[in-house]
Amino acid sequence: MMMEEELRKLMSMALDGHADSYHLFLQRASMPLRAYLRRRLNAIPDEVEDLLQETLLAIHAKRHTYRRDELLTPWLYAIARYKMIDFLRRRSQHEALNDPLDEETEWLEASEDAVSDSKKDLGKMLETLPENQRLSIQHTKLDGLSVAEAAAMTGMSVSAIKVGVHRGMKALAKMWKEQA
């Protein structure tokens, strides 16, 4: 929660016109955003840095939309997520143009159906968990956030996130065994 508080304070000061605070805000926000992007992308470091710069530019352009009474880190991560999606779309469009067409489409469709079914099953099981366990697992295991980032995003303590993940994973394992 310390990162959240520091970033919110710097952003508020920056929105009030303090240029030094804004510069420091961008520096401090870069570290967790870089880690967030790196964890989610199988990209070369230059691509991560390019995407980080795009994200920081978007934050700059949209800073007037930030509501001071709300948490800042979810707002930052949402912008980073949208920039990452745009990046992945551009990359896949470029790669799709270079992919040869062949007979593998049937195999891929069957594989995609199985993945889709597994995601639906997992989603149903997650819905049965208490909110603290579900959110802890969603943010750390599925979204790839660190425990500290998940705690900042949810307002829960780091310990509560760890306990939520442990208990939730235990409950999911039990549900999985019962279905098998």
Automatic annotation (TrEMBL):
Superkingdom of the organism of origin: Bacteria
Molecular function, one GO term: DNA binding
Keywords: DNA-binding, Sigma factor, Transcription, Transcription regulation
Residues in RNA polymerase sigma-70 region domain copies: 33-92
GO biological process assignments: DNA-templated transcription initiation
Keyword tRNA processing: no
Domain RNA polymerase sigma factor 70 region 4 type: 121-172
InterPro entries the UniProt entry points to: RNA_pol_sigma-70-like, RNA_pol_sigma-70_dom, RNA_pol_sigma70_r2, RNA_pol_sigma70_r4_t2, RNA_pol_sigma_r2, RNA_pol_sigma_r3/r4-like, WH-like_DNA-bd_sf
A Pfam family the protein falls into: Sigma70_r2
Homology family: Belongs to the sigma-70 factor family. ECF subfamily.
Protein name as it appears in the record: RNA polymerase sigma-70 factor, ECF subfamily
Organism of this sequence: Methylophilus rhizosphaerae
